[in-house]
């Protein structure tokens, strides 16, 4: 008979968890060929990131240069210190709603402080090795809040897409925003709508018929050229913001007071949570495309440091960006040097071409974000979940609707809570209780069904009865276990509780088992626990189940043999 051995895997060392992937790549050998591949990938990603970073910053209620600062400073640090070979950091569309709400409540200085605080939180989460837990957010929640963010992003771009003029400040909440935009429809600017339509058509057409070209940049350049040469008179970056600086600002701390920090704390927590989730999702996408494996806690530390640095340089929140990271992998990147060069190329573009950015129509950038929102919606994922199960559909819709109507934090919290209850309900359904008695013709075993519980007392009038439990015994199943066990009625001389098919027991379930076995002993039954794994036995002992009051045996057969020997010993 083969003897099974459980091999305990050694805990990873600090160096294994937190060594940046840049160090790993350099150790593997890095030469001219690798640098050439990373330079080409970095340039490709920079071309994509240039219009997108400005568009996201404008949609967030900030100025366009803040998006560039974020991609340059934050993106460089994410690649320098991160736990993924291919992660590209920068401003992300997922943050638009959150950043806009934070600026609306606390101003740009408040956003800088919230970003700095979120960076400190992410760094702490990484060093505390909590990155694994962020990935436990249910998939329907991720799809739901991503789709909700896509809806809000598109709604936020309607004004610039159509060139509308609002008499008052555009409301932040979705329903009042749509009402205000509907009232302003008579002010539609045909030229702005034409520029936006041209931009969207070029992005979609180039993506389909010329995928090798940087469709975002080409579309913005063509739309800008058309607006300038035709004299369309549409609103531009220069007319609204006064242009883009050609250098990075001097770093500095935002104003900090204890009262302001406490006021901003909820926003900082939301930024940290979303940043952690988004960055790890992006790293997982890169892993699936490349066959590599990222270091989640190292990645969170890098994201934290990058957010602190971005705040110091006047940027907005940084996270891993799925689309730009995927572009990096598809462009043949070898390692993090590609991400670092992407930031360097962006800095070069800003220093050399900043005056030209003033001519970019806001309608063109709105068209870019309209396409981003369409891609973010993940329509195929929504349809797949709705078709699959009602439970996941409820979680998805609750997350989506609360994200759209209330805010992102409420949507995620509600989705996680509903998803957790759904998971516990399904886990509790895996728990089964079976009853068996040894008889001359062989063991008889019947599954205990609540509908048959009244007949249990007639089933157990034997000298020795085995009650077999299977499945995870946790608080969600504790009440059901206790309800079934209480209906056993007349107890036998010997009761064996078979836990060989129980992978885990929590305190509530252990307390239910303790109460059942204590009641059996009070009624004169000798109680045994068979097949309990060491963790399960440890939990039972924590609830007061010790030998010799309760016997423990490796298997049901061993428990039967020990019970019979004990019975013979008593008779002699």
From TrEMBL:
A GO CC annotation given for this chain: membrane
Location in or out of the cell: Membrane
Sequence intervals crossing the membrane: 39-60, 67-88, 108-128, 140-158, 178-204, 216-234, 268-286, 333-353, 359-377, 389-406
Cleavable signal peptide: none
CDD domains, sorted: STAS_SulP_like_sulfate_transporter (cd07042)
Gene3D superfamilies, sorted: STAS domain
Source organism superkingdom: Bacteria
Pfam families in UniProt: STAS (PF01740), Sulfate_transp (PF00916)
Keyword Endoplasmic reticulum attributed: no
Membrane topology: Multi-pass membrane protein
Entry keywords, A to Z: Membrane, Transmembrane, Transmembrane helix
Protein name: SulP family inorganic anion transporter
Organism for this UniProt entry: Salinarimonas soli
């Amino acid at each position: 008979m083969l003897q099974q051995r459980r091999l305990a895997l050694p805990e990873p060392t600090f160096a294994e968890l937190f060594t940046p992937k840049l160090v790993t790549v350099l150790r593997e050998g890095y030469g001219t060929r690798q640098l050439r591949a990373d330079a080409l990938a970095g340039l490709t990603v920079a071309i994509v990131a240039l219009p997108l970073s400005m568009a996201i910053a404008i949609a967030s209620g900030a100025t366009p240069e803040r998006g560039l600062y974020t991609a340059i400073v934050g993106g460089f640090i994410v690649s320098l210190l991160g736990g993924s070979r291919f992660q590209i950091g920068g401003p992300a569309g997922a943050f638009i709603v959150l950043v806009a709400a934070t600026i609306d409540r606390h101003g740009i200085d408040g956003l800088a402080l919230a970003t700095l605080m979120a960076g400190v939180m992410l760094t702490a989460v990484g060093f505390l090795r909590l990155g694994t837990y962020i990935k436990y957010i249910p998939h329907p929640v991720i799809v739901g809040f991503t789709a909700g963010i896509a809806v809000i992003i598109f709604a936020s771009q309607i004004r610039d897409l159509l060139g509308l003029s609002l008499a008052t400040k555009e409301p932040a909440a979705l329903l009042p925003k749509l009402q205000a935009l509907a009232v302003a429809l008579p002010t539609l600017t045909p030229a702005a709508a034409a520029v936006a339509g041209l931009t969207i058509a070029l992005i979609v057409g180039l993506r389909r018929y010329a995928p090798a070209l940087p469709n975002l940049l080409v579309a913005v350049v063509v739309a800008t050229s058309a607006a300038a040469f035709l004299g369309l008179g549409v609103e531009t970056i220069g007319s609204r913001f006064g242009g883009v600086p050609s250098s990075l600002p001097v770093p500095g701390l935002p104003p900090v007071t204890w009262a302001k920090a406490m006021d901003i704390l909820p926003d900082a927590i939301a930024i940290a949570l979303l940043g952690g989730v988004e960055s790890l999702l992006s790293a997982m996408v890169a892993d699936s495309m490349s066959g590599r494996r990222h270091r989640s806690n190292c990645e969170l530390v890098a994201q934290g440091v990058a957010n602190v640095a971005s705040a110091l340089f006047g940027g907005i929140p940084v996270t891993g960006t799925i689309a730009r990271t995927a572009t990096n992998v598809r462009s043949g990147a070898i390692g993090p040097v590609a991400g670092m060069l992407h930031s360097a190329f962006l800095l070069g573009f800003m220093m050399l071409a900043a005056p030209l950015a003033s001519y970019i129509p806001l309608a063109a950038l709105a068209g870019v974000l309209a396409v981003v929102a369409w891609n973010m919606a993940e329509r195929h994922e929504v349809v797949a979940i709705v078709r699959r199960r009602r439970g996941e559909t409820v979680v998805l819709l609750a997350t989506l609707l609360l994200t759209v109507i209330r805010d992102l934090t409420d949507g995620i919290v509600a989705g996680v809570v509903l998803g957790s209850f759904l998971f516990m309900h399904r886990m509790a359904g895996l728990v089964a209780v079976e009853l068996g008695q040894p008889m001359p013709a062989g063991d008889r075993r019947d599954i205990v069904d609540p509908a048959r519980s009244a007949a249990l007392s007639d089933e157990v009038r034997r000298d020795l009865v085995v009650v077999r439990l299977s499945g995870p015994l946790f608080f969600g199943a504790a009440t059901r276990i206790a309800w079934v066990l209480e209906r056993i009625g007349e107890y036998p001389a010997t009761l064996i509780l078979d836990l060989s098919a129980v992978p885990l027991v929590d305190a509530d379930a252990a307390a239910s088992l303790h109460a059942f076995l204590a009641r059996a002993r009070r009624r004169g039954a000798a109680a045994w626990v068979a097949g309990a794994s060491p963790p399960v036995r440890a939990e039972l002992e924590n609830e007061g189940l010790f030998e010799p009051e309760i016997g423990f045996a490796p298997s049901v057969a061993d428990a039967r043999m020990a019970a019979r020997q004990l019975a013979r010993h008593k008779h002699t």
